[in-house]
Amino acid sequence: MKPLLLSLAVFTWINVAQAASGIDLTVTGLITPSACEPSLSSGGVYDLGKIAARDLNVDQPTQLPTHTLQLSITCDAPTLLALEPRDNRLGSGGEVGSVRFGLGLINESIPLGYMRLNLNSIVADGVSMYPIGSSGPSTWAPTSVLSHYFLSAFSLTPNPTVPAPVQQVTAGVLITPTIAPSETLPLTEAVPIDGSVTLSMHYL
Q1: 3-state SS string for 122-187
Q2: What does DSSP assign to residue 4?
Q3: CATH topology of domain 34-203
Q4: How far is CA 48 from CA 175, 188, 193, in A?
Q5: Spatial separation of the C-alpha atoms in residues 65 and 23, rounded to whole Å
Q6: Where are the domains of the chain?
Q7: What is the distance between the alpha carbons of residues 125 and 55, in angstroms, rounded to a whole number?
Q8: What is the reported pTM?
Q9: Residue 130 CA to chain centroid, in angstroms?
Q10: Which of 85, 84, 62 is nearest to 196 (CA)?
Q11: Which of 10, 41, 86, 118 is exposed most, by the fewest CB atoms within 10 A?
């Protein structure tokens, strides 16, 4: 299928003396004939249950048990794609510019903690794959980390790191939550752990 190109020109009334004072704005894109549908086991939910405040570390973060959800991606045909995570609790994970996803705020101002997400055990179309990441349009590097600051794709080899088209993908998504030191949190009442991440398909 040919790329869909839509051009939008910005016009203004001009006279002969101002003939060079206009500028063009161009919108480009590509409509792909194939689509991919992702899914996560357990409905994408990791339920930590109830955690007693007294079981949290007082002056240092408390790392909770790591849990794995199964990610499946099914495409109509072999497709170049990447995962584009979005942190729906952005700003509650603590460090700015890190690979942390927030677990929500207490009283709309105090970060409860964060979680890290990693990919492992990737199989695409019956072949083991390697996770790679990119913060730019053409530069990829080996990494199993998911981040809302870069894209994650799948490569047939660890080096060179080039995204490969896939049709059927399964992978483990490792979720590692960490709660902030309890001395920094108001824990006189029950506090919900409220992490939320959207994994979108980004077609390359």
Answers
A1: EEECCEECEEEEECCCCCCEECCEECCCCEEEEECCCCCCCECCEEEEEEEEEEEEEECCHHHCCC
A2: P
A3: Immunoglobulin-like (2.60.40)
A4: 11, 19, 8
A5: 56
A6: 34-203
A7: 44
A8: 0.82
A9: 17
A10: 85
A11: 10
Tokens standing for residue 196: 């939320």
Query: Considering just the CA atoms, what is the radius of gyration of the chain in Å?
Result: 22
Of the candidates 27, 19, 25, 50, the one whose C-alpha atom is nearest the C-alpha of residue 191 is 50
